[in-house]
Amino acid sequence: MKKKPELIVRNAGFTDAEGIYSLIKAYPKELLARPLSDIAQNIDRFLVCEKGGAIVGVVSWSILPEIGHARHPSVEVKSLAVQKSLRKHGVGARLVKAVIERITVLHPSQIIVLTFTPEFFRKMGFHEVPKASLMHKLYMGCINCAKYDSPFTCPEVAMAMDM
Ligand SMILES: CC(C)(COP(=O)(O)OP(=O)(O)OC[C@H]1O[C@@H](n2cnc3c(N)ncnc32)[C@H](O)[C@@H]1OP(=O)(O)O)[C@@H](O)C(=O)NCCC(=O)NCCS
After folding, report:
1. How far, CA to CA in Å, does 32 sit from each of 79, 81, 91, 107?
2. Confidence band of 1 (pLDDT split at 50, 70, 90)
3. Is the four-CA dihedral 67, 154, 110, 41 of positive or negative sign?
4. How confident is the model over 50-100, as pLDDT tens digits?
5. Atom of ligand 1 at shortest distance to CA of 77?
6. CA distances (Å), origin 45, targets 33, 52, 146
7. How far is 83 from 58, CA to CA, in rounded Å?
8. 7-162: in CATH 3.40.630.30
9. What are the strands, taking DSSP E only, across the chain?
10. Ligand 1 atom 30: the closest Cα is on which residue?
11. What are φ and ψ of residue 142, in 5° steps?
């Protein structure tokens, strides 16, 4: 019997940029599109999940700004996408566990996420927080959002994991 190809989560490289771009672009409602140039420039902040040589999942992270000393640094998990045909096969969970492990070495105060799938992130150990507690995120990202007039009317749920 033929063995099923295993899932491998690894750091992304430049040759993964187009695969990452397509995975993110497949979810225009759930995810902010990211230009190829942005993906390439931040490729060191992406993990991919590979199956049989194909990229079937992606996740990235970014560090939110702090004024002065980084006393309560927050890292945001973003651009999490799993190939549609492979959803509910554990790829998302593998990626989130790996990205938490990667972020943990930075010793942040918290990991945050803004998401339309709070149930999934609850299973990963995140809890809901008031959006107003993430003002730096709102200023950095939501301020440029054209989908909703205000982050407070946007249906995305703010979640955090304390470290
Ligand atoms: C959300 C997403 C990443 C989940 O990935 P996945 O590979 O399907 O998830 P997994 O198979 O690893 O699921 C892990 C657990 O979460 C549950 N789960 C997965 N998707 C879920 C959802 N949409 N709602 C509720 N629970 C969900 C699974 O049932 C599983 O539960 P179990 O451990 O009790 O069996 C994937 O559906 C996706 O790419 N969605 C579109 C993009 C998106 O919304 N990204 C998140 C933006 S922050």
Report:
1. 7, 11, 20, 26
2. low
3. negative
4. 999 999 999 999 999 877 777 789 999 999 999 999 999 999 999 999 999
5. 48
6. 16, 23, 25
7. 9
8. yes
9. 7-11, 46-51, 54-63, 74-82, 110-115, 127-128, 157-162
10. 88
11. -65, -25
Amino acid occupying residue 101:
E
pTM of the model: 0.94
Ligand 1 site residues (CB inside 6 A) read: 27, 30-31, 80-82, 87-93, 113, 115-117, 119-120, 123
Contact residues for 13 (Cβ-Cβ < 8 A; gap 6+) = 43
Q: Whose CA is nearest to atom 45 of ligand 1?
A: 80
Residues 55 and 138: their CA atoms lie apart, in Å, by 30
Q: What residue ranges do the domains of the chain occupy?
A: 7-162
CB-based burial, 106-125: b 16+ in 10 Å, e otherwise: eebebbbbbbeebebbeebe
SS3 53: coil
Q: Which two tokens stand for residue 64?
A: 């939110």
